[in-house]
Amino acid sequence: MAxxxxxxxxxxxxxxxxxxxxxxxxxxxFDISLMVCIVMSVLLVFLDTVASVHERYGDMIVIMEWxxxxxxxxxxxxxxxxxxxxxxxxxSFYGVVxxxxxxxxYLALFFPGASFTMVIRILRLFRIFRVLKLLRYLSxxxxxxxxxxxxxxxxxxxxFSVSLIVVVLSAVMYVVEGPNNGFTSIPKSIYWTIVxxxxxxxxxxxPGTPLGQAIAAFTMLLGYSIIAIPTGxxxxxxxxxxxRTRDLRRCSNCLKVGHENNALYCDHCGSELESEL
Amino acid sequence: MAxxxxxxxxxxxxxxxxxxxxxxxxxxxFDISLMVCIVMSVLLVFLDTVASVHERYGDMIVIMEWxxxxxxxxxxxxxxxxxxxxxxxxxSFYGVVxxxxxxxxYLALFFPGASFTMVIRILRLFRIFRVLKLLRYLSxxxxxxxxxxxxxxxxxxxxFSVSLIVVVLSAVMYVVEGPNNGFTSIPKSIYWTIVxxxxxxxxxxxPGTPLGQAIAAFTMLLGYSIIAIPTGxxxxxxxxxxxRTRDLRRCSNCLKVGHENNALYCDHCGSELESEL
Amino acid sequence: MAxxxxxxxxxxxxxxxxxxxxxxxxxxxFDISLMVCIVMSVLLVFLDTVASVHERYGDMIVIMEWxxxxxxxxxxxxxxxxxxxxxxxxxSFYGVVxxxxxxxxYLALFFPGASFTMVIRILRLFRIFRVLKLLRYLSxxxxxxxxxxxxxxxxxxxxFSVSLIVVVLSAVMYVVEGPNNGFTSIPKSIYWTIVxxxxxxxxxxxPGTPLGQAIAAFTMLLGYSIIAIPTGxxxxxxxxxxxRTRDLRRCSNCLKVGHENNALYCDHCGSELESEL
Amino acid sequence: MAxxxxxxxxxxxxxxxxxxxxxxxxxxxFDISLMVCIVMSVLLVFLDTVASVHERYGDMIVIMEWxxxxxxxxxxxxxxxxxxxxxxxxxSFYGVVxxxxxxxxYLALFFPGASFTMVIRILRLFRIFRVLKLLRYLSxxxxxxxxxxxxxxxxxxxxFSVSLIVVVLSAVMYVVEGPNNGFTSIPKSIYWTIVxxxxxxxxxxxPGTPLGQAIAAFTMLLGYSIIAIPTGxxxxxxxxxxxRTRDLRRCSNCLKVGHENNALYCDHCGSELESEL
Lengths: 277, 277, 277, 277
Hints:
Four copies of one chain form a homotetramer.
Chain A: H1 2-19, H2 25-48, H3 51-82, H4 86-91, H5 93-100, H6 103-110, H7 128-134, H8 138-177, H9 186-197, H10 210-226, H11 228-246
C-alpha cells in the first residue's frame, strides 16, 4: 500500500513543484506561460469592447475565450488536486481569484451580462510578483513597501487635513458659484475641488464668478504646493531605507557598521574592509 | 457646606473627565460618538443639496437635522456647565465653533438662507486631532508642522517671486491675446496664468495666437519645473527632522549622540550602545 | 563757500539715507510706503481693464494714475538729485525701470495705446528684496539661488533631452493625427506636446485616433515620471546647501567642522563643543 | 609608395580630426556649425507645415532644403572617406542616422510623402552631447544616468503596479460609465485613466454618473499622491550619487575617503587635507 501510494504522491509532488514552485525550470516555464495566457485572455476581453473589433472578430474571440477558460479550469482542478491542503488553497486569496476567473464564462451561458466580471482575471497577474522573485525584484519592492509603511502615519495625517480643507472649500464654492455654474450640489462641488486640488483640471465644471475664480486660484496654488508634503515624507523615508540596506559591512577590527558604499577602509579605525558586498 | 459642595463638584468633575478628557474609556467613547454625530450631520447637509435626495428625503433630513442640533445644544450646555472656567471656554476657538454649529438651525426658522452656515460644524472635526493623540498620531503631525515652520521663509520667498512672475506674464498675455480669446481683463488673465502655472489646465480659457501659445508653453514649462523648489525645500527639512528625532541615543562611554538607527556600537569609541529606542 | 556747500551736501546725504538706505527708521518707512504706492498703482491698471470697473470708476482711476505718476516723478527727480553719482544711477537697472515706470502716463497723452506699458511699474517691486534684507529673508533666498546654480548644469541637460523628445513626439503626432484633429502644423503639435508632457492638459487639442491616444498616453506617463528628475536634482542640492550652512562650528580641540546640529560633543575627539550657533 | 600614401593619410587624418574630433578649434567649429545647420534644417521642415508659411515661402524652403541636403550629403561622403573603418561607421547608430537624414529629400522626388521622414534629422542633434563634453556637461549627465540606472528596478516595480491598478480602474469605469458618457471601449477607458492618473485632465472624456465621479476622484487622489514614489526613489539615488562623486579626496595620513566638501582636516585623524578638488 505504501508502494501504491508513493507513485501517486510522487506525481502530486512533481506537479506541485511545477505548478506552485518557481525554483525549477519547469516551474518557471509554467508560471511564465500562465502569465502570458492571463494577459492574452484579459486583452481579448478588452478588445471585444471595441465596437469595430467586436463586429469583425466577435465569434473568434468567443471561441478563444472558451479556450482560455478551459485551460484555466484544468489548471484550477490541477491546483486543487496537487495542493498539500486543497481546502486551505481553495479558501486562500489566490484560490478564490482562480475560481472567480473561470466562473464568468460559464455563468454567461445563463446570465448574459456576467462576462464583464471576467476582468477579475487581471487579479491573477499579481502572481507575477512570485516570478519576479526569481529576478531579485522583490527586495526592491519590499524596500518601497517598508518606506510606505514607515510614512503611512504622516501621510494619513496629511490626507486627513487635506480632506477637511476640501470639504470646507467645496461648501464655500457651492454657496459662491451655485447651481447655474455647474456646482449643482455639494457632492458635485467636492468632485470639482478634488479635480482642482490634484491639478487634474478637466474643465467640465469651471468657476464663472470673479470670487469663485479667486477661490479656485487659491485651491490650485494650495494643491500645487502641498504635493511637496507627501513627496518630502516619502523621499526622506526612502533615503533612510536605501541608506539602511546598502552597506552593512562590519569592520573586523572595531566592529563598526554603516560605512559609505565606496569605502575601502573603516572610517573609524582605518583597517581595510572586506569587499564582500 | 463643603460636603454639600463636594457631590456637586464630583459630578462636574466626572462630567468634565468624560466630555473634555480623553484618557478614560468613557471619555474616548464620548469623543468618538461625537465625531460620528458631527460627520453624519455634515453629510446630511451635503446630501440635502442634491436635488433628487432633497425631493425624496427632504422632510426626514429636516427632522434628523433637528435631532443633531438638539444633541449638540445639550452638549454645549453640558460643556458650559462642567467646564472649570465656563467663560474662557465660551470665548475659546472651540467654544465659539460649538456655539456657531448649533445656531444656524435655530436661525433658519427666521432666516431661511441661514441653513448653509451649518457647514461650520465641519470645523468641529478638528477636535479629532485630540482623539488621534491617543493613537500617537500627533507627534508625526508635529514633525510635519516643524518641518513646515523651518521651511516657511524659503517657501515665502518662492511664492513671492512666483507671484511677481505670474503678474508680469498675465499682463503680457492680456496684451498678446486680448479680449477676443477670453482674456477679457488682467484679473482674468491672472486666473488663467495660475490655472496654467499650477498645471491644472481647465481649458476654459486657452491661447489662440501663435505668440500666445508660445508664452503659454513657456509658462507651463516654468510651472512644471519650479514645483521642484518647494518640494526640495520641504524634503530637505523633513529629512532633517526625521534624522533629528530618530536616534538620540547617547553613548555611555564617549557621550556621542546621533548614531545611525541600526547602530549596535558607538561609531566613535566602539563601545556597545543600549537599545533603549 | 565750504560752509555754503556743507548744508547742501548734508541735505543730500540725509535724503540719500532716506531714499536709498534701509537702515534708518525713516529709510524703512520710505521704502515701505513706496512699495504700497507701486502695488496700488499696478492694481489700478489691472482693475481698469475690467470692463464694468472701467465704466464706473474710469475717470477716478485716470486721476489716481496721474497722482501716482506725479509721486513717482518727484521720487525719480529726488533720486537723481541726491544720488552720489546721478549718471550711474540713471544707467543702472533700477534707474531705467524707475524712468520707464513714469513715462507711459506722459506718453499716453500723445499715443493712446502706451498706457499698458505702465505694467513695467511692477518691476519696481523687486526693490522689495532690499526691504526683505532687513527681515533676514535674503540669506534664505541666497541659499535657494546657490542650490539652483549648483544644479543648473544638470537641469540644463535634463531640459535639453526633454526638448529633443518633445520635438520628436510632436513630429510623430503631426503625422499620426493630422490637421483634422487640430494638429494643423508641427509648431502647434509642439504646443500640444508641451501641454501634455507638463500634465497641464487644456483639452483644446486632443488626439482622436487610437494610435494618437496611445502616443498621448505614453507622453503623459513620460511627463508624469520625469518630473522626478529636476525635483530630485534640486532636492539633493538644497539638502547639501542646508547641511552646509547649518553647523559650521569648529571643535576647539581637533579642529573638525561639520558636526550635527544637535551635537554636544565633537564626534571625533569627544571634547565639548561651544554652543555659539 | 609609402611617400605617396603618407600625404593622403595625412589629409585623411587631418579631416578626421576636424570631422570626428572635438579637441581642436577647427573640430569644435565644425561640430558647432553642423549643429546650427541641423537645427535650421529641422526648423525649416517644421515651419513648412504651417499653411500660411508654406504658401508664402514654400518655394524658398524647398531650395534651402536641397541646400542643406547637399551639405549633409557631402558631409556623409567625407565621413565615409576619412573614417578609419568606413564600414563600421556606416553601420554605427550615427552612421545610419546620417544616411537616413539625407535620403528623404532624394526619395521625395519619387515618393511625395517621404519628406516627413526628414524629421529623422533631429536625431543627429544628439551629437551635441559630444560638443557638450568640451563644456564638462557630460559628467553631470552621466551622474543622472547612473542615478536612473540605480533606481530602474524600483521604478519598474512602481510602473508595473500602477499599470495593474490602471487596468482594473479602466474596466470598472467602463462598466460604471458605459458608452454614453464617452467610455466607448476598455482601451478608451484606459486612455481616460492615464489622462486622469497622471493629472493631465484633458476633459475630452469626463465621468457623468455620481459613482463614476467618485471613482474618478479616487483615481486623481491616487495619481496625485503616488507621484511621490518615483520622485522619492530618484531623489534618494541622486543624493547618493552627488555625495559619492563630490569628495573623493583621500587623506594622506589615514587613507580615509569621503570627507565633507568643506572639510579642511580629515575627520578621522585630524591631518590637513589637500584642497585638490
